[in-house]
Amino acid sequence: MRNLLALLVFIPLQILFIPLAIVGAISVGYKQLIVSKRLGVSQTAIEIINGRWTMHIFGLRDDPAAAKLAPALPNTSTFGLWLALFPLYVHTGICGSPKWYPVIAKLGEEGVANLVTNRTGYFDSIIDSAKENAEQFVLMGAGLDTRAYNSLKNSRLKIFELDQPVVQQLKRQYLQKAGIDAAHVTFVETNFSQDDWLDALTAAGYDPSKPTIFLWEGVTLYLGEKSVRNTLRTVQANAAEGSVLVADIYAKSFVAGEYARGMKATLPVLDMTAEQLGFGIEMAGDYQYALESFVTSEGLALGETYFMGYKTEKGPWMVVAELKV
Ligand SMILES: C[S@@+](CC[C@H](N)C(=O)[O-])C[C@H]1O[C@@H](n2cnc3c(N)ncnc32)[C@H](O)[C@@H]1O
């Protein structure tokens, strides 16, 4: 009954909202692409905070810091997101939970539309189990991730955020504008394509003798294989036993834009902010073996894994994996 009522309200509302939704989508797209390019910062980090803001608003995952930071940023528009999503929000309110978007798919049934929702949950789950034994939390390529400003703020973890200087400057400026306290976070300017990133982390107070969670979410696909391998090797050689690195690793077909129809045509958009896709592993055959061989070849052991899309006809396109030191 609720579902029928929701549909009866949703259909006319969505029709009325079509022009507004177009304006909303254009304003979000303009800010994400053009303003990010003008500022010289990552547009893909915006994709994630938009997704996290949406999950928070639709009641899928609490992220009060993202709810405060996103509206303050110059390169996204939460007003535009509201215009695009309001009919779905009303539909969700009547049904009690989102039915079409944003949704968390069942493990193995994820499509590309579930990238942010499912991936975030898998990372949260691995972090939750690992944090009991950890003393440090290093966000590698932190972008606009707000994990450090929610419940982890009150944990005993010493928190470091690593990213490119221009991205960190933007984040720090707008955390302040949004009234989010970042005093407990140590910011370290990095480039994973250069070998000295660990020196910068150590100089900032990282202690290699303490068990640490390294979070590498949404980054490997923008790097080359050499940088990914060097980074894994560096963590392996400079982290205490019991430390874990949590990363998402993509299928070769995904980074080549061949996984889904129309994907290839969208890839040039990433050129605007120099975020071309690079590293992926072969997942067409025995994907578990492929991942295990890759991870062990860098001296790490495989822990929990979440292969996204593995139950679908096309097979897995990404894995969120816990790599143990
Ligand atoms: C898709 S965003 C992910 C941000 C964040 N981890 C999250 O999940 O919200 C990718 C981030 O990786 C950073 N990044 C990409 N290449 C990098 C590199 N070579 N060195 C340091 N950071 C890099 C970008 O600046 C951007 O913030």
> Element order, helices and strands?
HHHHHEEHEHEHEHHHHEE
Compute the separation of the termini in Å: 52 Å
Category by helix and strand content: alpha/beta
CATH superfamily of the largest domain: Vaccinia Virus protein VP39
**What proportion of the residues form beta strands (DSSP E)?**
5-15%
Give the domain tally.
2
The total count of strands amounts to: 7
* CATH structural fold name of the largest domain: Rossmann fold
Please identify, by name, the CATH architecture of the largest domain.
Answer: 3-Layer(aba) Sandwich
Query: Shape, please?
Result: globular
Task: Give a written overview of the molecule.
The chain is 46% helix and 13% strand. With 325 residues, the protein is of the alpha/beta class. It has 2 domains: 2-95, no CATH class; 112-324, Vaccinia Virus protein VP39 (Rossmann fold), CATH 3.40.50. A 7-stranded mixed β-sheet has the order 3-2-1-4-5-7-6, with helices on both faces. Strand 2, helix 6 and strand 3 form a beta-alpha-beta unit. The radius of gyration is 20 Å and the shape is globular. The model has no long low-confidence stretch (mean pLDDT 96). The site of S-adenosylmethionine (SAM) has 21 residues, from helix 2.
